[in-house]
Amino acid sequence: MELVFSIETIIMLAGIAFMAGFIDAIAGGGGLITIPALLLAQMPPVLALATNKFQASFGGFAAATTMVRKGKANLSDMKVSIVMCFVGSVVGTVAVLISPPQFLTVIIPCVIAIICVYFLLAPAQSSAGQKPRVSSSTWHFFCVPGLGFYDGYLGPGAGMFYTLCQVTLQGKNLLMATGGAKVLNFTSNIASLIVFIFSGKVVWIVGGAMAVGQIFGGYLGAHTAIKGGHRVIRPIIVIICLAMLGQYVVENWAVMLEWFAAVLQ
Question: Are 16 and 34 spatial neighbours (Cβ–Cβ below 8 Å)?
Fold first, then answer.
């Protein structure tokens, strides 16, 4: 199937990518905006996931390098986590390539809706450090690969999950957890992207335009995060995503009902 996108659509997606890169660098959840936007632009689910990984990698690189330069992420302490995150993401991406397209059409909006509810109801994260709840080996060899798998398989909200798990399981303060999350999120994006490129699933013209927006958004968002900009992001994510999800469900309700009917038979 040949995909054709108007100049107006590409410009709009680039603007959305800027906003997503900004939000992702601060609190995670940029995919909660870009994936519904790509689906609303009539891009098939697998191509949307692949193109999203391509454009998100640029914003992730800008955010991760900024955090490392500012001393909010220590690469030498994260070597094992980076490797395991990469492996988990590769496995997750291979899994999504063999999943039925109808399943992805249904599962993506469901996952996004669940995460939106979490953003709406979850208590604010503490900015102070805590005592670690898991050992280093458990974190490196079980938690990180699991997070990487999720990011490779779907991805929406992965940046938030990386941050949240480092706060609750590793006991990091919020800013250091955010810095580490940017590095891990970039790692899983790159791992997933490599698989998608070899499978020919990236829509390059759309991904390239969105990558430009992501670079500027990620750079600006990382500096904002360092200065303390977490609190304003949650309501923005919830409002935008619920609006996009509503439109997506309206446009794809027939496919979703058909899939559910097939499952129940």
Answer: yes
As a whole number of angstroms, the distance between CA 170 and CA 129 comes to 9
Do 67 and 227 meet the contact criterion of CB atoms below 8 Å apart?
no
> What is the tens place of the pLDDT at every residue in 202-222?
999 999 999 999 999 888 887
**Do 98 and 156 touch, CB atoms closer than 8 A?**
no
Neighbours of 110 (CB within 10 A): 12
Work out the number of other CB atoms within 10 angstroms of the CB of residue 34: 30
Q: Tell me: the pLDDT tens digits for 133-165? A: 899 999 999 999 999 999 999 887 787 788 888
pLDDT tens-place string over residues 3-24? 778 999 999 999 999 988 888 7
With CA atoms as reference, report the closest residue to 35 among 9, 57, 13: 13
How far apart, in Å, are the Cα atoms of 139 and each of 88, 136, 151, 258?
13, 5, 16, 40
Q: Alpha-carbon dihedral of residues 181, 186, 191, 195, nearest 10 degrees?
A: 130
For the chain, give the longest Cα–Cα distance.
Answer: 55
> Global pTM?
0.79
Q: With 80 as the cut, is the pLDDT of residue 189 above it? A: yes
